[in-house]
């Protein structure tokens, strides 16, 4: 029976949520000016009526904010995992403060050429996407606050990053297990009838167009809730305490009288902590939690509203930090000195990819890649003819200019053909080793497999090649066929 009641209650809440938050496509809605992209999940009771343990609704497209943040962090970490150090327990990029107290990621000793040259465009894309989702969240937050305080006083009672879905076009409220309403008390005559009073009616432009009779309000929880918020903003403990007392029942006020001095001391102590404006929601929730410990009953609608405010602030902080991290990574890769002004490491003469890496760590290399990325950006603010001209300039025989420069600096393809200088160096290193097969496989692993992500298609293929190569060599070794051993090694080279 409990489950059935819960399902029926949430079904009612979803329907009420549609009235409050289904604003998109409804220009007559009172919050359309601030939330034209906000909507709400809908109950699909025409298909499946609410039952004992089933409740079906439609939520539209998109993803929840908490999942979007996690996905963005994972993408950022993946793109730079071969450039910057990450926390082994969380996978997050490690950020420290430099000598000027600025946040910086910690570079690895070596990093992948692929991550450095192509990673920034992906980082930019996922960061811009998160910015777009944040704007939709802020729009939903404005509506949530406005409808709660300026509308009919009803609000989603569990507004956090897992209960709001966003796309680049809209934000959708979901999961209406809790829907609360700030209470009002109305004036009544001696017979218990609600007294009404004339109230001005205005059009959408604010012009008075008449009057209508409305119930006379003598107490509104929203007013007292605003006292709590303003008390925390202004660090005014007295205003907070007065607003809190007004929210209590008669029994609650009696309990508060016995602990008022202690309660005021706690309120004033918490008021003195934190940032004057940024930590308002945190101070609110801390004070209410401490008052509960003293035996005070906080109305659930008040506590849930404050809790949602705090969660919302934490989510926005997390999104801003992630966006700042994306910008920091791009700036560090494109403009910062990743190598920390160190001399390039001494490379093995066979480490061609290491030489590529050193080149791209240099100012010259970063500049070439940055210029190339900018001009190949399809979103660049350039006319089509200018884009075509730039692409023709940077592409010669289908190859970007920076790769042509790199070829001229390090790559003479004939050097790597069988019989070429590089080929002979590799073969000589293997043949003079104490264990030729071990030397060959280690060189192959270090310079051709480890430079790629483990699940990379090419890395998998190369591992298969090494395994076949090893099997062929071992069979030749068992037959004591040194000529075949040399042939296998030369083929591997």
Can you give a write-up of this model?
The structure is a single chain. By secondary structure, the chain is α+β, with helices and mostly antiparallel strands. The protein folds into four domains: 1-179 and 310-338, no CATH class; 184-215, no CATH class; 221-298, no CATH class; 413-492, no CATH class. Helices cover 55% and strands 11% of the residues. The protein contains 17 helices and 16 strands. The protein has helices at residues 2-21, 32-35, 65-79, 113-149, 221-233, 237-247, 250-271, 280-293, 300-334, 352-361, 363-375, 384-394, 401-410, 421-431, 436-449, 457-478, 482-492; strands at residues 38-40, 42-43, 57-58, 63-64, 95-97, 103-105, 154-156, 164-166, 171-173, 179-181, 184-186, 196-202, 208-215, 217-220, 395-396, 399-400. The strands form seven sheets. It has a four-stranded mixed beta sheet with strand order 1-9-8-4. Strands 2-3 form a two-stranded antiparallel ribbon. Strands 5-6 form a two-stranded antiparallel sheet. Strand 12 (196-202) and strand 13 form a beta hairpin. Helix 4 packs antiparallel against helix 9, helix 5 (221-233) crosses helix 8 (280-293) and helix 8 (280-293) packs antiparallel against helix 9. It is elongated and about 115 Å long. The N and C termini lie far apart (74 Å). Mean pLDDT is 78; it is low at 371-383 and 392-399.
Brief digest:
The chain is α+β, with helices and mostly antiparallel strands. The protein has helices at residues 2-21, 32-35, 65-79, 113-149, 221-233, 237-247, 250-271, 280-293, 300-334, 352-361, 363-375, 384-394, 401-410, 421-431, 436-449, 457-478, 482-492, and strands at 38-40, 42-43, 57-58, 63-64, 95-97, 103-105, 154-156, 164-166, 171-173, 179-181, 184-186, 196-202, 208-215, 217-220, 395-396, 399-400. A hairpin with a 5-residue loop joins strand 12 and strand 13.
